[in-house]
Each structure stands twice: as C-alpha cells, then as structure tokens.
Design a protein that fits this description.
Strand content: 25-35%
Number of helices: 0
Radius of gyration: 16 Å
Structural class: mainly beta
Helix content: under 10%
Shape: extended
Largest sheet: 3 strands, antiparallel
Order of helices and strands: EEEEE
Oligomer: single chain
Number of domains: 1
Length: 78
Amino acid sequence: MNEKFSYTITVEDEVQCVTIISEGKLNITKHSDIKDSDYRAGNQYMYFKAGVYNQHNEGADRDYVQATFSNIHNKHKG
C-alpha cells in the first residue's frame, strides 16, 4: 500500500508482456501467449483500461480500493 510503481504492457506477435517497475526493487516481468485468448476478435486484441477493480462481492460495506495515476501514456504501433 502507498507504494509508487510503474508498469508497461506490450503485445507483439501474439505475446503480451507486462513489466512492473518499482524503484529499489527488481523488475517483475510476465509473458503470456494470447493467441487463443477469448479477447481476440477480428484480429483486434483487447483494449487498455486503467483502474483498480475490487474482485469480491463479500465483505464490509466500507471496503474499497483506490489507485492514483500520475501519468498514463498509451502508444499504438500502426
């Protein structure tokens, strides 16, 4: 909590790569083959969405999630 970090998401040749970057820590990178994902339609892959999404339907009424974005940069190769 209250940790500043950045991340990159790239998709190239049907491989999605996500890298988490946090000062003073090793970068964490995850590669995923998305060729057969359910997100593929008409050769268009997904869309980018920034936010925090609570993943449960139980808990206290005051449960919440919060994220603050200081900069968002989106770039598409054409």
